[in-house]
């Protein structure tokens, strides 16, 4: 029986050795699909070495909004043996594999980058299925599962292509293999070649000659596959739909950086660390800001420092001059910044730290994903000082949230830790065009003029830390006339002079810490927590989570809703100070509370217990370094609904 066609709903995966063009091919594919009016969600997985190890890029495509990846693969594009060994068994029935026919006799032992654990797992699987331990054995395994195989002789095509264009430098042309593999998949999908050409031009827009070479190679590969294979047998198709003018394709490592430019951040420091470096590198590439509200050019200074201690202290120094300042780092780097954050706290300095979480502890999994730094961010530094910890859930949120955290930092004059992560940084998705009318800049009590007479302390100097009914003192830029005050790491008077007076200590601690009470009252509810959907009265199930699990949870509960199962989702955004009363209200009528997090202990669940004295009924956690899919969450929730699930479910999917 002929299977029904599936149009514009597909999971596409491309894999290869790191440095072989996997990312470029995936970006071309994503751009082409978005230009065709389709929605995209993609995620990048890679090892921490520079070149050689296996990397792969998953791109999910749909004509409806999507916010996450799924576990199944519908079309696998490979140009090396390891991709076939690692992913060939994940391709669905009716799906396809594009591979290099010259690799079929490669044994699994001949692929040195396959680690021992994966080697054992794949070997056992093939032996159990009575297949040879070769690429051909894996292809036979996939074929038995209903996968369609497309063998493409890449290097034969390269030789023929070199003859056609009269360029015999195969070493140069070899670089186009990734695009030829991508184009072969587009031929199988009956995709419009004019849109593909446009996407290639866009990705290589800075190198027009390379763009033209890749376009020619793509067309040659496309025509070869069309002439050799019957594309009507493949059930998945991608076709152009009406393009929406308010949808853009955005990479996660750019959205927060763009938010910084829009927020008026004009000084960023960093020490290179994965995955945070991409944030600073984007700013370095876009330091000159062509247009500002007053029609003038502007710029942002980005400094690569000698270490993370220098990065945070320089950012604090920049903030003292009145410039909106930030630094970007990941777990190990953030560890080095904590003492200086305490200095910013006691001196009431507005500074933003973009904390891109990755898997720890120590170096951990430096290029993999986890949400393990929540408690650390809330409790970082010795002693007690006010800080705001704020978490974004996706690429679109991270843009607007970046603007908000600068406002929080300056309005309440304290450090703000903006929680992002590897999953957001290394994903790509279609989202709404960023709306400039949603951008609001609030610089708080920053004085531009000369200090009024009489507002001075015992030494006749400016009261930078003035005691008042409002715990937020006015502040001035360093160098403001008559605005002399002192900054130290010690407790101080209103002017900033060191003192150990007990009464002063009580007043200063009360002044600083009461900022959190003020922030709790003033920060809008939608910035504290957001509730999605509603729970079924019979089950009363509510999910609580934070950060980048948002998209996968929303996609999973959408699927449950279609099946008549209603589940509520509460996304907590303001992690500290914790919005206890709001979250408690959102959890009304909840009988079954499910915590979903990318860490071992369920750190949000611990906060809920601490602040609401409420126990979590079920924990769904994942900590293998790979982000959650909506498939995993859906299956776990169905398991809980069945009534047979354990109280703790550990998700394990990922290559």
Q: Mind telling me which CATH architecture of the largest domain this is?
A: 3-Layer(aba) Sandwich
- Which percent band covers the strand fraction? 15-25%
Poorly predicted sequence stretches spanning 5 or more consecutive residues: none
Count of alpha/pi helices: 22
Level-1 CATH class name of the largest domain: Alpha Beta
Main sheet properties: 8 strands, mixed
From the N-terminal CA to the C-terminal CA, the straight-line distance is 33 Å
The number of E-state strands comes to 27
**What overall geometry do the principal axes of the alpha carbons give?**
globular
What does this 3D model show about the protein?
The protein has about 650 residues and is an alpha/beta fold. The chain folds into four domains: about 5-235, Pyruvate-ferredoxin Oxidoreductase, domain 3; about 250-440, 3-Layer(aba) Sandwich (Rossmann fold); about 445-525, no CATH class; about 525-650, Rossmann fold. It is about 40% helix and about 20% strand. The protein has an eight-stranded mixed β-sheet with strand order 7-6-5-2-4-3-18-9, with helices on both faces. It is globular. The chain starts with 5 loop residues before the first strand and ends with a strand. The model has no long low-confidence stretch (mean pLDDT about 95).
